[in-house]
Amino acid sequence: MKRNNTIKIFALAAFLALLIHPAFLFAQDNGISDEEEGTPVPFELDAIVVTANKVKEPVSDISTHVTVISSDDIKASTAKNIIELLDQEAGVNVRSTFGNDKQAVVDLRGMGDTAGSNVIVMVDDLMLNAPDQSGPSLASVPIEQIERIEIVRGAGSVVYGNGAVGGVINIITKEAGKTPSAQFYSSYGSYNTFDNRVSLDGNLKDIYLNLNAGIYDSDGYRDNGFFEKKDIGAKSSYAINDRFSFKASGFYYEDEYGLPGPVGKEDSNSRSKRVKTNRPDDFGETSEARGRFEVEMDFEKWGTLSLKRGYLFRDNRYVIGYNPRISKNDQKNKIDEDTRQFDLNYVKNYTFGGHSQIFQLGIDHFKTEYFREENPDGPRKNSETESYGIFINNRWSITNNLMLNAGSRYNYYQGDFRTDEKKVFGDGKIWVNGDTSNSEWDNSAYSIGFTYAMSSKTSSFGSYATSFRIPNVDEFAESEEGLHPQKGYHGEIGGRHQLGNFMSMTIALFDIRIHDEIYYSDINRNYDEETIRQGIEMDCTLYPTEDIRLRGSYTFTKAEFDKTNATIPLVPEHMASIGMHWQLVNQLSLSLSGTYTGSRFDGNDMDNDRYEKLDDAFIFDGKLTYEYKNLMIFAGINNMFNELYSTSAYSEQYYPMPERTIYGGIRWTYF
User: Fold this and answer.
1) Does position 1 have pLDDT exceeding 80, yes or no?
2) What are all long-range contacts of 66-71, with beta carbons under 8 Å and residues at least 24 apart?
3) Which is nearest to 407 in space by CA: 460, 461, 358, 453?
4) % pLDDT > 90, the chain
């Protein structure tokens, strides 16, 4: 297997070299210049508007490494869900427990095992991250409904507050349609996997609506690895006039899934044994509802104001370690979450010194009630957390080429926590309330940055920022005395370059130092030593012809403890990806993608000397698409080389990923 990986890595390196080299050949041999007219421009940095700072601005004005994945990119990709899509991007490491998007974790810039609490995932400005250690619920976001995804790497605590350490992933779903349309999607694949989805767009006078629903059902590639989910959502918008508008959305999701658990090291490398489980009866079920309301007001010369109110309700029931002598209901663990969010965002555009400037003021409030009961004998954990934040962000155009930005945040947090125990009274057991503990913290963050345009096609950027993360409810529930928030210091410098109409490239170097980082060993605590993450991210997109799009990325991350120089577990040093979309003829296209993830240390190997490292892996996917009028037919293969690999392991207990899978389906659109 090592020899095969060597061949694949060599092929990856050769492809990356070819990815860059043809751009110079076209530029030199064909005499193409940046100013040539009449040639369509496949990408233009200034034309890509993102909301990384909750303000619409072009990528070229942002002082950190940002990637925008458009709906066209999603359509042309080989990905069937969000985690497969994100795994192809620079600096992104995805870990999955059971080979699907349920309980998957997205890691930015080497956060490791706590990435679920150190990387924020937003959906339409509503935070998906759970208040415990489970991370965001990515399975509840249908990829068919995504308009674009913005990956903002590095500290985002000024704008987003607690937990924006490795970065922020902002998912924007499709707006309510202004013209009537309908779309039907259906696919079938390996492991008896069905995926069906329907969406409708239309309007009732001045109210625009989008309705969508989906059903997914799979037996899974492992025994007791089944996964079933269904959802329904609605999104609407209404504009009173050019200055006042309303938006509202609602979404309901529920699932059922098996929990096959891990396998040993030897079994993970056996095709017959890696699919087995010694937990045939463990399972879980989740229901989740979220809603969002927004009012946007344009006061013209006085600026714009948006008010957003969000709700997220989660109900999770699961059984781990099933006991046939006890009824399932009596041994179901329970988690209930009720989160309410409020955001106020004021933006004022003004002119000073002949240049445009932006002033931004934001206020946010989060409140979560969290309940967790472990059955049959407890404990039961109750918590109520609340935070208030206010931030100011400014962007100044100093010259036509130089732009500066600076921001700061103040954040107040308070939490009440109580652990109850079941105790024996007479012939039975009853819950006895524990003592309530309280935690309060004042946290702050700041950021400064610049962008400098050396030409219309080349620019540099840099930033220095701080971040903070407050312990989540799981960490509080089982922690040593004195557990407190962590503080991060982030430096970044990079550049963007567009070569004619053929190539776009971004390179970024980063340095992250975290004091008192929160981690878990036998109990939750703060590290005594500083953690350091340094690296480089490169991504490139190339159009050698009008019909071919190539892309590639490479990431090097050195994540280690300052004093011992031990590597932080579950963080690969090398990651790379390649991709191609080729329009073979007018109706037929081919998409290919390959993702390489280097070896990494076991999740419980803090000193790097206890367990074997996880093997590196090269996963190659392909998809063929045929389009005729309103009909699209597609077929694909994932893990084409049938690689045996795992993305997570703890004490040499591995969570194996799927082998080769095949799928096909149709998408029909009616206008």
Assistant:
1) no
2) 66/150, 66/151, 66/152, 66/153, 67/150, 67/151, 67/506, 67/539, 68/148, 68/149, 68/150, 68/151, 69/148, 69/149, 69/150, 69/151, 70/147, 70/148, 71/146, 71/147, 71/148, 71/174
3) 358
4) 72
- Please list, in sequence order, all residues whose beta carbon lies within 8 angstroms of the beta carbon of residue 573, skipping any fewer than 6 positions away: 556, 557, 558, 567, 598, 599, 600
Closest CA to 409 of 65, 171, 155, 168: 155
Q: How far apart are CA 345 and CA 301, in angstroms?
A: 16
Tokens read off for 111: 């956060």
Cβ atoms 414, 470 nearer than 8 A: no
Instruction: Give me the residues paired with residue 468 across strands.
Output: 487
Alpha carbons 624 and 630: distance in angstroms, whole number:
17
- 268 pLDDT higher than 60: yes
In order of 58, 240, 302, 602, the CA distances from 305 in angstroms are: 20, 15, 9, 48
Burial letters for 5-17: b for 16+ Cβ neighbours within 10 Å, e otherwise?
beebbeebeebbe
Q: Assign residue 666 the CATH number of its domain.
A: 2.40.170.20
As for how many domains the chain has, the answer is: 1
What pLDDT is stored for residue 22 in this prediction? Answer: 36
The CA–CA distances, whole Å, from 156 to 83, 234, 293, 569, 666 equal: 21, 29, 23, 24, 39
Q: Residue 75 sits in which domain range? A: 2-670
- Cβ distance 422 to 432 under 8 Å? yes
- Report pLDDT digits (tens) over 485-521: 999 999 999 999 998 888 999 999 999 999 999 987 7
* Backbone φ and ψ of 321, nearest 5°: 85, 50
For residue 314, which phi and psi values (nearest 5 degrees)? -130, 135
Residue for token digits 């079933």? 228
Cis peptide before 280 (omega within 30 of 0): no
**What pTM was computed for the model?**
0.90
Q: What is the pLDDT of residues 179-192, one digit of tens each?
A: 889 999 999 999 99
User: How many residues does this entry show for the chain?
Assistant: 671
Dig out the tokens for 472 from the structure: 């989540």
3-state SS class at 144: helix
d(CA 52, CA 77): 23
Across residues 3-9, what is the average pLDDT?
45
